[in-house]
Amino acid sequence: MDLRGKAPGRGAYLDPDPACLERGLAEGVLAKALEIEIDTTTADRLREELAVAAKTRTGGS
After folding, report:
1. How far apart (Å, rounded) are the C-alpha atoms in residues 45 and 31?
2. Residue-wise pLDDT tens digits, 4-51
3. What is residue 53's predicted lDDT score, i.e. its pLDDT?
4. DSSP alpha helix (H) spans, the chain
5. In this structure, is residue 48 part of a structural domain?
């Protein structure tokens, strides 16, 4: 996750809502936007990183 949107390389904007990530994974649009296959391990990592990013943005613990 690149919260600042400054990392080099391919990226995709994603709402920090877990339902948005799940929809993107299920429909394949996230994989298409990133031009990669997203396996189970990568999907799990994305879920974890999104949860951490959401807490960081909201100041949660």
Report:
1. 14
2. 778 888 788 888 789 999 999 999 999 999 899 999 999 999 999 989
3. 84
4. 18-27, 29-34, 40-58
5. yes
* Cβ atoms < 10 Å from Cβ of 24: 21
* 9 phi, psi to nearest 5 deg: 105, -175
**Given this model, what pLDDT does residue 21 score?**
93
User: Does 11 reside within a domain?
Assistant: no
For residues 52 and 61, what is the distance between their CA atoms, to the nearest angstrom?
9
Domain assignment of residue 53, given as a range: 18-58
Split into its structural domains, the chain has a count of 1
Chain-centroid distance, C-alpha 33: 11
Structure tokens, 37: 């296959």
CA 30 to CA 37: how far, in whole Å? Answer: 9
